[in-house]
Amino acid sequence: MNIRIRFSSMLINTPLVQDMPLLLSFISKYIQHLEGIETLDGWTMVICINYTSIKNHGSFLWIFKRSKTYKNDKEKEFTIHLPLPSSRDKDWGIGWKQITPQLPFNDERFHKIDIDLDAYNSLYDYVNDLIIKGVRELFARGVTFEGVKIKMKKDETIHRLNR
């Protein structure tokens, strides 16, 4: 299985602080411990990270319950909305003028994970840690590829991997 991470933003001039080598390395190691992954040779998993703001969507990591499948391209796309704090929330947050008005999310369409802003000292740490948390949550709940349920195995390796 191949992996791609795609970034988009609902903000103006979003800083690019994600660490692609770190994220791809983590996800590559992580998916080796998924049940059913061996049946998906030739498929590409696309993880879409969409930056939004805490002002508009609260201190939650939003994982979209549905996914898009492109059968001809053998791609499956999952979306995680990551709200960035403003400089009013944290001194390392984004500028207030970068935030654009947005419609609220429908809670029924998302899994929500609380975010503790005080646990982070920089936008870099915040973004990269929350992307990893979002991926863990996605596979802890399980996803379906072409009728095959992909979910994290319950063994000691995973407990060490999750730390």
Could you give a quick summary of the protein structure above?
This protein has 163 residues and is of the alpha+beta class.
Derived structural class:
alpha+beta
Number of domains: 1
State mean pLDDT (0 to 100 scale).
84
What portion of residues belong to β-strands? Answer: 25-35%
SSE diagram, text form:
Layout: E1 2-9, H1 20-31, E2 34-35, E3 44-53, H2 54-57, E4 60-64, E5 68-70, E6 75-84, E7 110-114, H3 123-141, E8 143-145, E9 148-152, H4 156-161
Description:
With 163 residues, this protein is of the alpha+beta class. The chain has one domain (2-161). 25% of the residues lie in helices and 31% in strands. The chain contains four helices and nine strands. The protein has helices spanning 20-31, 54-57, 123-141, 156-161, and strands spanning 2-9, 34-35, 44-53, 60-64, 68-70, 75-84, 110-114, 143-145, 148-152. The strands form two sheets. Strands 1, 3, 4, 5, 6 and 7 form a six-stranded mixed β-sheet that branches. It has a three-stranded antiparallel β-sheet with strand order 2-9-8. A hairpin with a 2-residue loop joins strand 8 (143-145) and strand 9. Helix 1 (20-31) runs parallel beside helix 3. The two termini are 24 Å apart.
